[in-house]
From TrEMBL:
Superkingdom of the organism of origin: Bacteria
Segments forming domain CsbD-like: 6-57
Taxonomic placement: Bacteria, Pseudomonadati, Bacteroidota, Cytophagia, Cytophagales
Record's protein name: CsbD family protein
Classification via PANTHER family: UPF0337 PROTEIN YJBJ
InterPro entries with a match to the protein in the record: CsbD (IPR008462), UPF0337_stress_rsp (IPR050423), YjbJ_sf (IPR036629)
Organism of derivation: Algoriphagus ratkowskyi
SUPFAM superfamilies reported for this sequence: Hypothetical protein YjbJ (SSF69047)
Family: Belongs to the UPF0337 (CsbD) family.
Span of the signal peptide: none
Length: 62
C-alpha cells in the first residue's frame, strides 16, 4: 500500500508536525510500528479527539 510507504518514509517529518499541531501527543503515542497503523491512528484519535478520517487524511494523503 503506497500510503504506508509514504508514512514510513516521512515518519520523522510527520511526527514533528503532529507534535507541533497536537502538543498533547507524546513520543510513546507516536511510536510507529510498521503494520500497526490502526493502533497509531487510535492513539492519536484518543489524545486529540480528532476524527479518524481527518487524522488518516493528514497522515496518508498528499
Amino acid at each position: 500500500m503506497s500510503s504506508n510507504l509514504k508514512l514510513k518514509g516521512n515518519w520523522n517529518i510527520l511526527k514533528g508536525k503532529l507534535k507541533e499541531k497536537y502538543g498533547e501527543l507524546t513520543d510513546d503515542d507516536l511510536t510507529y510500528v510498521e503494520g500497526k497503523e490502526d493502533q497509531l491512528l487510535g492513539k492519536i484519535q484518543k489524545r486529540t479527539g480528532q476524527a479518524e478520517d481527518a487524522i488518516r487524511k493528514e497522515l496518508f494523503e498528499d
